[in-house]
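Bump. Still looking for P-type Na(+) transporter structure tokens.
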Amino acid sequence: MSGEFPKHPFLLDVPEVAKALGTDVDKGLTEAQVSQLQSKYPPNELDVGGTVAWYTILIRQLFNAMILVLLFAMTLSFVIRDWIEAGVLAAVIILNVSIGFWQELSAEKKMDALRALSSPSASVLRDGKTIVIPNAEVVPGDIVSIKMGDTVPADLRLFEVMNLNCDESSLTGETLPMEKSTDHSEYTQDESEVSIGDRHNIAYATTVVQKGRGRGIVISTGMATEVGKIAASSTKKRRKPGRSMNWKKYGKAAPVKGGVRRVYDFVGKFLGLTEGTPLQIKLAKLAYVLFFCALILAVVVFGVNKFDVNNEVLIYAISTGIAIIPESLVAVLTISMVVATTVMRKANVVVRDLSALEALGGVTNICSDKTGTLTQGAMIVKKVWLPKSSIYTVRDSMDPSNPTVGSVTYSQVDNQPQEAPRDYDQERTTAAIKFDVPDEKLNPKPKTESPESEAQLTDDLRLFLLSAALCNLATVRFDQEEDKWKTTGEPTEVALQVFSHRFERGKKKMEAAGWKQTAEFPFDSTIKRMSVIYDAPEGKDVGMDTTNSYVFTKGAVERIIDLCDYVGDEPMTEEAKEKILDQMTSFASQGQRVLAIAYKKWDGKYVEDKSKKGDDNESAVRSAAESNLTLIGLAGIYDPPRRETTPAIFDCAQAGIKVHMLTGDHPETAKAIAKEVGIIPHNLGVLGANVANTVVMKATDFDKLSDAEIDALEDLPLVIARCAPETKSRMVEALRRRDAFMAMTGDGVNDAPSLSRADVGIAMGSGSDVAKSASKIVLTDDKFNSIVAAIREGRRMFSNIQKFILHLLTSNVGEVILLIAGLGFQDRNGQSVFPISPLEILWINMVTSSFPAFGLGREKASADIMRKPPHDKRRGVFTNQILIDMLVYGTIMGTCTLMSFVIIIYGVNDGQLGVECNSKDYNDSCYYVYRARAAVFAELTWMILFSAWEFKDIRRSMFRLNPDSTSRFPLFKDLWANQFLFWAVTIGALSVFPTVYIPKINRMVFKHHGISWEWGLVFGMTIVFVLGIEAWKAVKRHFNILDDHKVVRGAWSQGEEGSKRFGKTMSFSSLKSWASRSRAQSTGPLTPSATQGRSASQAPEVRDA
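Sorry for the wait, here they are.
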């Protein structure tokens, strides 16, 4: 327990607790106090492990396939007393394990730091200002605000609650949420006599707020909290199912089954076969497959030599074992992933799960919220309608926080019925094209607007403002120090509060006048409304009786009007409802979110019946409060789209990704915004009748459909309005049945199921802690274009992984071909003479090829990265193109090096293979073999290095990597673009000369020596290899084989209409910079992805023949 308390804080009143902690409930702690307390108390974190222990990383490094092969080779070298080779191998093992250990340890620390960024945050009051900080920075004495969906950051002594209920099941085992209060007088017993679950004025760390809101003083943090005490006293880990060895409970076979599974888990964990991302597991399995292949090749070597295993045969076996293992593959993959997460963090994307990095490149659909993601989230009340046909309009204001900017005008609505405007574009069809334009469209009549005047404060407007201000949790205040208006709260409520402040009828002023809140029914996404109950003050504000309480309600128009008996002074009739809905549609068609405001007089003073508790009783009370209401007006709230949204949506269309908008707004509002940002076309007629009829759907209509009916739709809706959390989950399942790979955004508690079910769950940084914990990615800026930028980075990383895997495995294939063919080179004693020595292979694989592989991992995204369709999630990085390229290039490499060895030995030197040329001691008979090895070593090194430049793009020529370049010879510029790779190749190429010519090292270590005329052969074969790669690339391009599918394009693409207003498109490195657009437009049916048809089998063929 922090602070000096005379007794436990739940037994003290609030002033006593505040005094003991030296805090002020109105202003919070000062910065000086916070600094002092942070030095006194440890961070507000639970010490429950979580991070990977250093010794676990070390053991994992020792037991990976590469090290096992090297250990095996080192042991054999010691056995045959080749001390130089054994010593070098030992040094390589130590160096490799050390580097791998520090790299992985650093990667774990970086990932821990990134996870901390997306961990639960706390809203605290410091120096009189409300700020949001990470949980770890909370200190005793902080004043913390909590609301529905929040995770309580520390143990709090509550001093303000409103319908606050917390889920304490993880702490107390109580399944029902616990209702909280601020009273301490009910406790007369000692601390030991009151259980944790019965201390209702305490909110405990890690519990989740199920509903309501509250404020409290932090009384303990970290391991001093109640949950921290439990964590400190318990270190028991949960085992996976089926791991029990209790034979009494699970039968006699349990010890055997449980033991085997525990050993499998232990071994799999350390070897990386059961833990990690899917790609990491796949590559770990590949490494061990190659390890066993190395053993098989060793047996082949022994077999060719008739199992007469002497020192030279053992050395040859060591060579083949080293040749087949891509030593730096895992290290390069780990570093590439960490670099990608770091880059994403700079662009406001926090990756909580590394598997999301792999998944991003395969996303085919994005289901996005509207408010704050596609739009700015800076809402302004633009229109207010009152029942007496009055319209109030806010003019000349785009500042969502300042109520003094702009003006409010008043006008009357013409109630005469008007003929619905004709949709000429919809009427026009390709079956009957006419070029005669109707006169009313060619010469439209000028619109007649009713005269507007400055708004005056009438009784009707007073009542509307009172309701809008009180049924509201937002705050609006003017900060004297910063000389500007500041707001807190949900954007919709801020907009209403700012509008009330325009007439000096804000919540704070109303409560200061005597309005006293007695109950609150928080916003519920299932019923889409919120209500409060207030007692009226003396003075009869707006003619209200002080002997009664009043209910104020706001919410979705359709939901509110069904609860109303009156609209203004008139009874609610079907005609009145029709008029209200028409007005709502008018506002919504302008892209405004429309809310209804209503109220009613409570019969007498409202008093909460505390004897009745539970959800059923609360539901009954709420139903009673939200019935027989009187509608007092509609508010049209405008949330302008973000400028960068439309180009980002167009980028998605170019990349074969379809964007869906799932919003709680009215269908007309959703449709207007969707058209504005380019999710749907302005003229729905371009989509075809079947698609146009379902492109925008209400959630209620979508939910009524069975799964079979949803699957029968030609295309899933692009816009779903009045969307409920359950609708999101159904959308996820519908997309999955169509073999789509979706990203889903969300921010509320109820979004957690859909976020966890989606392939990539994306939580908003401003959202609830529950949503963040259910997601794999968190957007700290809530912007849609950050999602697209993350997908771009995911594709870049995926493409680079393919490049360095191709680079590393190509060299392995070439080396294995060389060595296996080399088994035929037998000396006078019948011993196979290897054309390249073990340490030469080790040098090439560890030193020469590793750094270019790192460079390929840092390669920038290609110009057409967002013009390709999503990758096939089933195949992953090992596509047909990668596998075939690996074999083709490896064969060319192996053939060229083999030919060089043959030319030197057999073509020039009459097949002189010497005697015992594999052994540690040099003799004169090996002179030509050593020269041939030097040539093969230099040639193989250069081929591997230059292949890294070739693999900057696996289809385009190295001599013209950028298709948009206008330079006549852009080779150097393209190669210089990745300076790390440039210098890795250049220095690696130059390193050949010292390794060939340094005396003693060349003979004793590498088993080769200096060469002369052979350099011509090395240069020639290297050129042949490069030409071979270029020829294979040209064949692939000319015949369009092994190509990515073209993105299907049609008459209309998402974002295309709006993107013409923007000159630039987005890149990941800077969200202000945008990638160049595609010059060529492929043709096809409706955009944008082949995965969107009724089923995978019915999808249009999009392969470029």
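The first strand starts at residue 121 and ends at 126.

Edit: fixed formatting.
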